[in-house]
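User: Hey, quick favor. My workstation is busy. Could you predict this chain's structure for me?
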Amino acid sequence: MSEQAVFTLGINTGFAVNRYAEPEEWVRIVGGDLGLKAVQFTADMLNPDLPGAVLASQVKRISAACDRYGTRVTSTFTGAFTRVNHLAHPDAEVRAHWVGWFKRFADLSVDLGASAMGSHFGIFTHRDNGDSLRREERRRQNITHWHEIAAYAKDKGLSGLTWEPMSISREQGETLAECHRLQRDVNVGAPLPFGICLDVDHGDVSSADPADTDPYAWLTSFAAESPQIHLKQSSKDKGGHWPFTKANNERGRILPAQVLETLVAAGARGNVELLLELSFREREPADSTVVEVLRESVAFWRPYVAD
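Assistant: No problem, here it is.
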């Protein structure tokens, strides 16, 4: 990995889920309308549990469209529909299913041409999270399962896995201290390196430490371990997943120049993907203006990240 960071502006396909399901359509939007080359493909677009023939057909269409528009899938990630307990589920049979699911997701990731696969780490139930002994047991199981998946992913040719720090204790990595601890523990004896997919809008708003909700404190703390950054406009109260429109930018605190300067100063290295991860409600006019708003968001960032 090179010492100097190289930044790429890309996009997470969460915006397209159930809205632009056709590969030719969402890839045209990403590569043609937005002019972006890097895609983080979410499992919500193509569930690894689908029959193999269906997966192969969809992969072929996605690959052909990416070739046409000069873009590519660089990483994969879980999404809104897969924001479930998975590897932290209290039932061993359910956890076992999800281990298999992530192995199939690794297969799909390789078929799509991605070099990395990621997810939130795992979500505890209220019952497990409220019992310190049971929570610690679930956490150990969670890490063990990720190591099993990492060994499989390594054999399949992936170069690394990433996990996303969230905003509450049940979803893990919610404070700077907890994120440091989990990042350390998951990498002990890991078959592949685990990096962080850092989200500038996450962090526990109930924390007494203001740094835990300061995006620049997170960027400073984890710059060297975050090959992927989820971008959206954000406020102090973590309003969530705002696009970079003029109105949102006037009240938001995510500033492209400050983000990049913080990452460089804090030791970001290698290829760092800045990924727009934007959500749009299934309400009008939001549902009909998605591409327009995405264009505005890309235009806001493009002067600072020229790829």
